[in-house]
Structure formats: structure tokens, C-alpha cells
Amino acid sequence: MSAARDKFNEKLIESIDLLDTELANLRILVLEILKNYQARLENDIRSLRNSLLLLKNSSNKNWIKLSLIEKFIKELNALETKPEFGRRKDLKKIEKVLLVLNKQLEKLK
């Protein structure tokens, strides 16, 4: 009975160690995904800001652009997030707003 118990305990410890290793690997994967996601969002924001700079320096200014820019400001101000919770849905909201802004700015070019 003791040998069977020892074998069980050994198997349990091996399984726990294996699960711990897999979780450590998963943590590394999550960090890499987050880093790449962050870089992509930052790049999207940088691109939008560059587009705005081009629009600002454009000789073709009109009321449609002004109203659209004011709409963008309202959308960004209305964006409700809770960064302290680190919620995925907040990132999705930001991503969606950036996508909409980018599409609208493309139309202005």
C-alpha cells in the first residue's frame, strides 16, 4: 500500500510541476501578445495623429472637415473606460473608435 501511495504522490508532484511549467509558458505568451497588441494600437494612434497633421497643414480646409473633427472629439470624450481593471472590453472600445476614426479620416483625404 505504501509503494502505491508513493507512486501516486510522485505522479502528482510531476503533474503539478508540468502544469506549473505550462502556466509559466502561457504567461510568457500572454506578455508577448500584450506587447504586440499595445504596439499595434500605438501605431494606429500614431498614424491617426500623422493624418491629422497632414489635414491641419492642408490647403483644402472646409466645414465638413471641421464638423467631422468635432465629432471625433466628442467620440473620444464619450469613451468610457476603467483602466484600473485592465478589461479587454475597454481595449475593444478603443480599438473600435480608432478604426472608425481611421475610416473617416481616409474619406477626407
Strand fraction = under 5%
Summarize model confidence as the mean pLDDT. Answer: 91
From the helix content, strand content and strand pairing, which structural class follows? mainly alpha
User: Largest sheet, if any?
Assistant: none
Q: Specify the overall morphology.
A: rod-shaped
Low-confidence stretches: none
Order of helices and strands: HHH
Radius of gyration computed on alpha carbons: 25 Å
Distance between the termini: 79 Å
Proportion of helical residues: over 70%
The beta-strand count equals: 0
Count of alpha/pi helices: 3
Describe the structure.
Helices cover 85% and strands 0% of the residues. It is rod-shaped.
What secondary-structure arrangement, pairings included, does this model have?
Elements: H1 2-57, H2 63-78, H3 88-108
Helix pairs in contact: 1-3, 2-3
Overview in brief:
The protein is an all-alpha fold.
Characteristics:
single chain; 109 residues; mainly alpha; 3 helices; 0% strand
